[in-house]
Amino acid sequence: MGKIIAVANQKGGVGKTTTSVNLSACLAALGKKVLLVDIDPQGNATSGIGVNKADVRYCIYDVLINDISPVDATLPTEIEGLMIIPATIQLAGAEIELVPTISREVRLKKALEVVKDKYDFVIIDCPPSLGILTVNSLTAADSVLIPIQCEYYALEGLSQLLNTIRLVQKHLNSQLAIEGVVLTMLDARTNLGLQVIEEVKKYFQEKVYKTIIPRNVRLSEAPSHGQAIITYDPRSRGAEVYSDLAKEVVGV
Ligand SMILES: Nc1ncnc2c1ncn2[C@@H]1O[C@H](COP(=O)(O)OP(=O)(O)OP(=O)(O)O)[C@@H](O)[C@H]1O
């Protein structure tokens, strides 16, 4: 049965999309069947994996609002074993449009129930907010993976995220677990990152992955070429660390 992992942190720019795309691609490279779900209106995971948004017929908005089947909204990617349900800017209106709908928090869960069993992993790239789209993702998920950037304000805002997770566990999804915490964008030139790692480890203990994602220019270039790092530059440090992270997630 497929495992659904929401990649979430309401803080912007911490590496949610980079982690969602590259973890998904590396899981597929390990032979897993993976569905990447882009539920961020910016649609960066969609373009980052090479889908031209102008060519998208149905996106996650249609699944959530127009009752389009997730099967019809699923597109192949250039990576074998990796499929995507894309997002387009249409999704920006969904937060408001979902408000008057019945069971608005469980719409993604219901949709993913239809396709979950076809995949080993479903990875959801959440938007930088704790609104209804993130709540839908946490409600649909078996677990949540939290990227935290190795910077001075790393832990700021985490209490709101953990509070939201607790509320979802209490009212919507008692099974929701913390999958793990991945530290991102470590800058080896300063000591600050190492101090942040210690702080985050004190807070999340064994939930912190051994793999730490360094700043790597190839990781920031790959999305503009519509590629995951393992196809854009398979020999880069970025490809190496996301492959290591995928192995940790699989439990190798
Ligand atoms: N390890 C890394 N090394 C270098 N650049 C990175 C790395 N991880 C992410 N970036 C860059 O940092 C920026 C923010 O990353 P990303 O889009 O993954 O964050 P996000 O949390 O998804 O952002 P948002 O909150 O806007 O959805 C992007 O330009 C990305 O290319």
From TrEMBL:
<dbReference type="InterPro" id="IPR027417">
    <property type="entry name" value="P-loop_NTPase"/>
</dbReference>
<dbReference type="InterPro" id="IPR050678">
    <property type="entry name" value="DNA_Partitioning_ATPase"/>
</dbReference>
<dbReference type="Pfam" id="PF13614">
    <property type="entry name" value="AAA_31"/>
</dbReference>
<comment type="subunit">
    <text>Dimerizes in the presence of ATP but not ADP; ATP-binding is required for double-stranded (ds)DNA-binding. Interacts with DnaA.</text>
</comment>
<comment type="similarity">
    <text>Belongs to the ParA family.</text>
</comment>
<feature type="domain" description="AAA">
    <location>
        <begin position="3"/>
        <end position="178"/>
    </location>
</feature>
<dbReference type="InterPro" id="IPR025669">
    <property type="entry name" value="AAA_dom"/>
</dbReference>
<protein>
    <recommendedName>
        <fullName>Sporulation initiation inhibitor protein Soj</fullName>
    </recommendedName>
</protein>
